[in-house]
Every structure is written in C-alpha cells, then in structure tokens.
Amino acid sequence: MRIGITCYPTYGGSGVVATELGIELAALGHEIHFISYSQPFRLTGRDDGIFYHEVPVSSYPLFEFPPYDLALASRMTEVAEFCGLDLLHVHYAIPHSVSALLARQMLATRGRRLPFVTTLHGTDITLVGLDRSYLPITRYSIQESDGVTSISTYLKDKTVADFDVTRPIEVVPNFVNCDVYTPITDEAARADARLRLAAPDEALLIHLSNFRPVKRVADVVRIFASVTKEMPARLVMIGDGPDRSAAEWLAHDLGIHSRIHFLGKQDRVSELLPLADLMLMPSELESFGLAALEAMACKVPAIATRVGGVPELIDDDVTGLLYAVGDVENMAAGAIALLKDRGRFEAMCAAARKTAQTRFCASLVVPKYVEFYKSIVSGNPPANPVD
Q1: 295 three-state secondary structure
Q2: CB-based contact 235:205 (threshold 8 Å)
Q3: CB 290 within 8 A of CB 17
Q4: What H or E segment, with its residue span, contains residue 117?
Q5: At what angle do helices 290-297 and 342-359 cross, to 10 degrees?
Q6: What is the pTM of this model?
Q7: Which pLDDT value is given to residue 50?
Q8: Which of 141, 274, 289, 368 could make an S-S bridge to 97, C-beta 3.0–4.6 Å?
Q9: Which residues have a Cβ under 8 Å from the Cβ of 14 and sit 6 or more positions away?
C-alpha cells in the first residue's frame, strides 16, 4: 500500500510512534509518505520506501496566525494525487484529522477516494479536545474518520465518555522493535559503555520525556535525591522542553546537579536505555507510557504512576512498580528496595523484557495496523476490535 502519515514531528510520544510505524511499514514493503511541517526527528533518511513532504505555511499580514491546518489539507491532497496514496493515517486528532477530512472532501469532488485513519494518542483527547472551543470539531473529525484507533483501552473509554463518540474505536497499543530496543548481553561491553555515565558501583537511573509539566520532571529529581542518600547513583535525563530549566535549578538547589546528566534530545535512545537500571516515569497522566515500554524491552523496569493506560502496560511488582501521583517518598523507597534486592530486581528485569516481547513487539502490533488499513481501503472496517 501507499500510505500517507501525518504527525507532530517533535520529541513526543505520538510523533515517535508514528515515525516508528512508518519505518516498520516500509520494512514490510509498503510505501510511506510523511506529510508534516518538518521531518520527524527519528527519521534518519536511511530507510528505503520512505518519503518526506514538507508542508509550507505562508505568512500574510492578514493572518495573525499562519493557517497550518489548511496548508496541511492542501498538501495532503497534492501528495495523494501525485503519489497515488491508498489512505492517510493521521496521529493526534487536532488538527490532523480535520485536515485529512478536508483533503478527503476535496478529492471526492474529483472522483478520487482517500480514506483516513485517526489514531488518538492522549492529550489530543485529555487536554486539547476538552477545551470547549475545540470539542465540537474534535468530536466531528473523530466521528467522520474512516477508522479510529487508540493506544489504550483507557483512552478509548475516555474518548467515548467525554466526546459522546458513537463510532467504533479499535485499541492498537504502542509498540517497540524488540530487535532494536534490546538488552546488552555482553556484560563487559555494557560495563565499559556505562563508564561514561556512572562508576561501576553506582546505580544508573534514567528518565525520557519532552519535559512538559505533565511529566513531573521535578519529581524525577526529588526521587533521585532520595536515592542518592541511600546508595551511590547517577541520573540520566533524556529530552528537552519547558520544564528542563526548573529541573536543573532544583538539582542545583538540592546539591546533586553534578550527579545528573542532562543530555537533551537524543536520536539513539536505544543505545542509552540498556545502560540503565531503572526508568523513572512519575507522570501526572500517561495514556500509554511509551518511554517505559522502550525501557522494558531493554530489561529496564520502571518506577511509574498508576494513571491512565500505564496499568495496561506495567504489572505492578512484576514488570515495574506503580504509585500514586506525587508519592515521591514511596517511589524513592521502592527504587532503593528493588536495587538492593538483586534477586527480585533481576526477576523484574526479565519479566519486563518478556512482556515487551510477547505483548508489545512491533512484529505483533504492526500487522494489526496493516489488517486495519486493508479493511478501511476495502470499505469493510472490522465489526469487532482488532486488539
């Protein structure tokens, strides 16, 4: 198939999933066309069958804000015609599904059918879509999509409840390439690689996010500060965003800044995650928890919050540890206890990897998208969920 994919190309879960999906689909022989305002950051140009189409946005004195949604709809229409797309897959409802709807309608006037699939990722429903000014158009674009998927049962149920959506929503979870995100089996090589981040006797904790307020990066620093009082440890902070400066200042104020590596955005997180012992994910809300899944695939369990779709991913006290939002004290105590109990820790590492392999591996999840696409293109969407 020839598939157009639109996502936010920045450092966030929806963009990561959309990009990785495109890479996996291209590896299966499909032709993938990314349509967005800049190239998704995880695209490296190394993949055959992947093409990128930039969306130019003109600025006129008349426009206080450039009309990106209209420019995107126009570019979707052009790419669909020039490249013979079979369907569009848009990630994040606002404004991508609205633009896809416009593109579908424009092409229909010329006798060209272009169905589109909308994947709901989280804040497009939990935050943006519930803004009263966006709620009607979000509901309409979801209802009018040819197919809708969500990344967790939690998000599906919330969408139905908050938006009164009556159309079917299929749950297709996030996924990870278990051949890319994998533990380092050579212990000597792992030990050597860890030396640039931590001494041999130090525990290594890691956090990966876009540093938005919902990620509670200050809690990450506070958890780590408590851990360092009990054992030698280092913290790696991967990503960037509005709360990075606050996290750095807090680390300075607590006297632990020298023990934290703020690495910023990283293209090859699959090489960093296997070096860690624990992932810290104390988010206010996660519709799934992709960062935790990527860590789990590398045999790194997560200390996380019992929110949203996280319990669908992490089995408490089996593949990770779950706590209430803001319960920094117990998160730190849990991390310390786990790191000090080698047998329990190694069992949890193994269980985390096994869960990633048996439930969330790309080889299991991506074919679900392919079958869903085929049903949409044929005009016969499944009557029952594909999850």
Answers
A1: helix
A2: yes
A3: yes
A4: strand 116-120
A5: 110
A6: 0.91
A7: 93
A8: 141
A9: 7, 8, 91, 92, 119, 121, 122, 124
Residue 289 corresponds to which tokens in the numbers above? 């928890």
Between CA 134 and CA 310, with CA 100 as vertex, the angle to 5 degrees is 60
Give the single-character DSSP code of 259.
G
Grouping H, G, I as helix, E, B as strand and the rest as coil, residue 236 is strand
Residues 248 and 239: beta-carbon distance below 8 Å: no
301's torsion region: left (phi>0), alpha (psi -120 to 50) or beta? beta
**In the block, residue with structure tokens 């935790």:** 292
Q: How far apart are CA 349 and CA 320, in angstroms?
A: 8
Instruction: Tell the residue number behind the tokens 């229909």, with chain if given.
Output: 108
What are the E-state strand segments in 173-315?
203-208, 233-238, 260-264, 278-281, 302-305
Residue 148 DSSP SS3:
strand
Give the count of beta carbons closer than 10 Å to the beta carbon of residue 58.
8
* CA triple 129-19-89, angle to 5 deg: 55
- Two structure tokens written together for 160: 């139905």
- Chain segment 46-90, per-residue pLDDT in tens: 578 999 999 987 766 666 667 888 999 999 999 999 999 999 999
In the chain, what are the domains?
Answer: 2-175+362-377 (3.40.50.2000), 187-359 (3.40.50.2000)
